[in-house]
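User: Can you help me understand a structure? I only have the sequence.
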Amino acid sequence: MVHGMMNQSSVTKFTLVGFSEYPGLQPPLFLAFLTIYTITLVGNLGLITVRKINPKLHTPMYFFLSHLSFLDICYSSVFTPKLLEILVVENRTISFVGCMAQFFFGCMCVITEMYMLAVMAYDRFVAVCNPLLYMVAMSHKLCALLVGGSYLWGGLCATILTYTLLQLSYCGPGVINHFGCEYSAILSVSCSDSSFSQMACLVISILSEACSVLITLASYVFIVVTIVKMPSKGGLRKAFSTCTSHLTAISIFHGIILLLYCVPNSNSSQLFVKVATVLYSVMIPMLNPLIYSLRNKDVKETVRKLISSKLHSH
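Assistant: Let's start by predicting it. Here is the structure, written out as tokens:
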């Protein structure tokens, strides 16, 4: 760690390019991102509140969902405020420590969310394949363990990757062609051999992605087999509807992450990387509450009751 600290002396801050090459787009982008961020906060906080209020929603599925909402709030708050700031101010800098902290929390949230989605797939598997024993199988203790494990693994991976980045030297002028401290963006301003850090990132990415995708795929294979065997069409429809929201969220999340890391590193792809990062750091946190609540009768019912009670009280 001392070695890493010594390396910092050459660069104490970085300059974030953001979307400054498109000056005309700055005001509309600011308004768009501010709107999305507001919807994200309201939507996710709303989902957490609705679960607290309605006893019907005190089930494992909503316990995981409220943690997913919490992660989405944290994740969008890691990147969006800084993105909004660099769209309006001239001085688009971020301190070295701030940059590393932004990377650490962003990385932790992504990996934790990846596993939270896998845990939710397992939860759907138990609900569809073992409905009578669902509440017994998904006990409070197991749910807490699964959630705690996801946060722990996310934190551990983020710590390792941040440590490898701290071991590198960074030379001036320290201009990052991105709106935030995303992994490849930080590496682009390093002037020492980053092969070890890249190797660590590759191993952690493949391991995390493969494990979460395998858990999800295995869960859905069992779910499909169970649904196919169902004699009644009503049961089939109910089982399918509980899974579609989750499948939509998973497809968008993994799709964008795979897109982002399969892009060759060249100048022409830098805009693509920025746009893809916007999609998963700004858009996904907004979409999750919409995906889950729009298809859900209990959530809509609770929101309706809340609004009507507020209107009556006035």
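Now, to help you interpret it: Confidence is low (pLDDT under 50) at residues 1-9. The CA atoms of residues 111 and 208 lie 7 Å apart. Let me know which part you'd like to focus on.
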